[in-house]
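Suppose you are handed only these lines of text.
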Amino acid sequence: MSIIKKLFVKTYGCQMNMYDSDRMIDLLKPLGYQLSDTPENADMIILNTCHIREKAEHKLYSDIGRLEPYKEAKAAKGEYMILAVAGCVAQAEGEEISRRKPVVDMVFGPQSYHKLPEMIAQAHRTLSKNGKPSVLDVDFPTESKFDSLPAPNPDHKGSAFLSVQEGCDKFCTFCVVPYTRGSEFSRPVADILKEAKHLVSIGVKEITLLGQNVTAYHGVGLDDKEWSMGRLLFAMAEVPGLERIRYTTSHPQDMHKELYTAHKDIPHLMPYFHLPVQSGSDKILKAMNRKHTAAEYRDIIYKLREIRPDIALSSDFIVGFPDETDQDFEDTLQLVRDIKYVQAYSFKYSMRPGTPAALIHSQVNEDIKDNRLQILQELLREQQLEFNISMVGKQTTVLLEKEGRHPGQLIGKSPFLQSVYLEAPKRLLGQIVTVEIEGGTQNSLAGKMVTQEHIHYA
Ligand code: 5AD
Ligand code: SF4
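From them, the structure of the protein bound to 5'-deoxyadenosine can be written out as follows.
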């Protein structure tokens, strides 16, 4: 009889981390680890961290402090709680984490997850030898972790992530990703299709292909030649039973012809596109090493809208990058006014040690950053509300993903990634239904189900 052990996982940051956490959970299941939603009495805690901005890192250290009493309570019972720090902070800081916080027993980066069972065994060996487990693994191994991870079995409710690409070779001057996730790696098309078919076989209707730089995908195709993201999307479109396809995150520099064709010719490639621009000022874009101008970005959007007029746009913005003047910031606002986003993420520039931008002397004052962020977010909020209200009276499809706060209510996602609330029986969770939108706020839509039918593409 295997002994059940309690596992608590906290995920910080991006969807890539969410995917990685799920894979770690899947990997630990056969070892008897059962997921728990509280850290209390856990046998193992994994903090899957994010290093992208300073705030995320601070949060990790304060969370470790909060977890200490749980570890002590467990120790008082003569039991051991293994505390592991995974993810990008682990990759970047390595040993420094356990030096600063000795309660941390294991530190390992995103390229080592497939070695988790081996690392846990090592932790137990050092525990019985020294009374304290100690594991550090922040290598970039040559073998692919994807080859050794089990097929995902997410608790999916109709929608799942599929990681197709990792790492980044772009080196934007503000960003730690090329250092924490390493250089670009693309999974072979055959492996991706196998995973996609498996996901569909367990009831998944929507797959979001993930990559730090997904549009830079260049994996080995079914013909042993290198395939682009566009070609991969066409292959995904052929997966029987898959009803919605999404992908994220894209880079303006990688917008190749096949991608546009994919948006034109694949009806179930969702009309939603997340294309980070970061700034509307050419001077700042150059200093960021983005390798495109604001005009080139605008052209991409116009071209996409020409072939797919209903496409909804989302982006990432950074305000207060070093040397950003009022005029540079105004250029960003003008770009937002011109393009009109349905959703966006905006951040104050956060100085990351080891990145080129951290060395620029003329950092922008914190109050100015706060003020600019507020102005930008207000504009983005207005645009989001305007888009949501424009849906009122229209019919759309909704993939029902979870229960709402009120009895009988379910929440799902529209093709444009809006949250939609409606009354529907629980048995429809994971299904796509047709809904008439009756109301819209900045963050969500309310609607009523018209029919359980919708157009099937695949
Ligand atoms: N400061 C602020 N925002 C950042 N991002 C990445 N690095 C930083 C940084 N140093 C933002 C970018 C990116 C998103 C994932 O996080 O907008 O697109
Ligand atoms: Fe970071 Fe730029 Fe790479 Fe995106 S493209 S992960 S912002 S370096």
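What can we learn from it? The chain has a mean pLDDT of 93. The chain has 14 helices and 19 strands.
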